[in-house]
Amino acid sequence: MTGPVAATLAMALGFVAVHVFVGRLTFLDVVPRSRWLSFAGGVAVGYVFLHIMPELGAHAAAFSAGTGYATPVAEAAVYTLALAGLVLFYGAERAIIVSRGMRRAKEGRDRPERGMFRLHIGASALLIFVIAYLLNHREDATVPGLALYFVAMALHFITADYGVRCHHPELYDRQGRWILAAATLAGWGAGVAVALPQVAIGGLFAFIGGAIVLVVLKEELPEERKSYFLPFVGGAVLYAILAAGELYLVA
């Protein structure tokens, strides 16, 4: 196994650990919302805007070259995929919230219907598969670049998995975490075995960018979350400092 592949496997196993053990992070289960979750959300959003969004410009150029479309059309197509990621996960989240409210009203149980668990885990597994696939297909394959990707995505998974587990605690602990762990390893394996064209890689980056923004903001914005602004900003600022440090090292 080559060095970079071994490194990305170690990162994938780190992601697996988050999925499997997030339920044991008892310090997250507090009211008001844990400051650590707000901090993790800030880091993930910082990654989207300081890494994924700038990279979309490069991928739009590759899309233009690969398809022959004019640059404005190529850019619009790439950002449409980011919008699609946001809309898809917004739709899934709304369906789960509606189902939870209807079941609470009818049965007095504060849980979504079982079918909503499959929808939630399926959407999460799709996103996780893509993120793990991209471990081996980063535009910035340097050690600092991979490290920043790993840290940002691991913190994003803490936020996202915590949100899934809040909706389906028993099902997540019994089944969901293992499905997400399997999706991680499958995505990493696919990344090693299959190299997609740069046009497709750009589309995947755009898709996860939109999805991550939605997942983080839906965890931070609702009033009942009682989330924290300063830790969120702190996470974003810290990530910005780390990203600036990476640029300095590369330069």
TrEMBL record:
<feature type="transmembrane region" description="Helical">
    <location>
        <begin position="176"/>
        <end position="194"/>
    </location>
</feature>
<feature type="transmembrane region" description="Helical">
    <location>
        <begin position="229"/>
        <end position="250"/>
    </location>
</feature>
<feature type="transmembrane region" description="Helical">
    <location>
        <begin position="147"/>
        <end position="164"/>
    </location>
</feature>
<protein>
    <submittedName>
        <fullName>Uncharacterized protein</fullName>
    </submittedName>
</protein>
<keyword id="KW-0812">Transmembrane</keyword>
<keyword id="KW-1133">Transmembrane helix</keyword>
<feature type="transmembrane region" description="Helical">
    <location>
        <begin position="76"/>
        <end position="96"/>
    </location>
</feature>
<feature type="transmembrane region" description="Helical">
    <location>
        <begin position="117"/>
        <end position="135"/>
    </location>
</feature>
<feature type="transmembrane region" description="Helical">
    <location>
        <begin position="6"/>
        <end position="27"/>
    </location>
</feature>
<feature type="transmembrane region" description="Helical">
    <location>
        <begin position="200"/>
        <end position="217"/>
    </location>
</feature>
<keyword id="KW-0472">Membrane</keyword>
<feature type="transmembrane region" description="Helical">
    <location>
        <begin position="36"/>
        <end position="56"/>
    </location>
</feature>
